[in-house]
Amino acid sequence: MRTWMNSAFAAAMTLFLAAAASRAQAPLTPASLSPCAWTPAEVEAALGLTVERREAADMKTVGGRDVGCVYTFRGSSIEISIRQTWDPANSGASPAAAEGATSDRKAIAGDPDGAAWKTKRTDGPRLELTYSRGRVRTTVVARGGTFRDEEMQPRLLRLRRVP
């Protein structure tokens, strides 16, 4: 009786694992990148602003792809952009390290994607979050309007990491 139950359990687990594997995401390719990676609802939930417009850009390169989107908001001069660049060389360097030892980026301690912040205040507020996943380097930028970095950082971190 026990042997039959063990066999039945093993068969059920095999079917479960096979089904889970079939639902797993397809391998990441340049073609799988989406310029406007977030829905307006996702952006609105993270930032508390109403998306008025999205403008997409898509550029194919030899062996790679560079896609992006700018989100503008109703009644605000703040805009958020996302840019995903497929790196066929797969450098694997973290964003902070990729800029060299004199980087003005501040790494987020313990971040699994090697994320880093960069701030710029010369021409108005600008906050940049950069991270890498596999062969894709993603940069999220908040600019325009008036915002404080320490208030915008947690909002940008609420956005789903892509790809």
**What structural class do you assign from the helix and strand content?**
alpha+beta
Number of strands: 7
Q: What is the CATH third-level topology name?
A: Protein Transport Mog1p, Chain A
So what's the overall shape?
globular
What CATH architecture do you see? 3-Layer(aba) Sandwich
- How much of the residues is beta strand, in percent? 25-35%
> Separation of termini?
48 Å
What's the gyration radius in Å?
Answer: 20 Å
Q: List unreliable stretches of 5+ residues.
A: 8-23, 98-102
Instruction: Identify the strand order in the major beta sheet.
Output: 1-2-3-7-6-5-4
- The helix/strand order is HHEEEHEEEEH
Give the integer mean of the pLDDT values.
83
Task: Tell me the domain tally.
Answer: 1
Summarize the amount of helix as a percent range. 25-40%
Q: Which CATH class applies here?
A: Alpha Beta
